[in-house]
Amino acid sequence: MRVIAGTAKGRRLVPVPGEGTRPVTDRVKESLFNLIGSSIVGVRVLDLFAGTGAVGIEALSRGAAHATFVDKARAAVRAVERNLRETGLDDRAWVIHGDAFAHVRHHAGEPYDLVYIAPPQYQDLWADALLAVDEGDVLAPRGLVVVQIHPKEDHPVTLTRLDRTHERRYGSTLLIFFKPSEASDAAG
Question: pTM surpassing 0.90?
Answer without folding.
Answer: yes
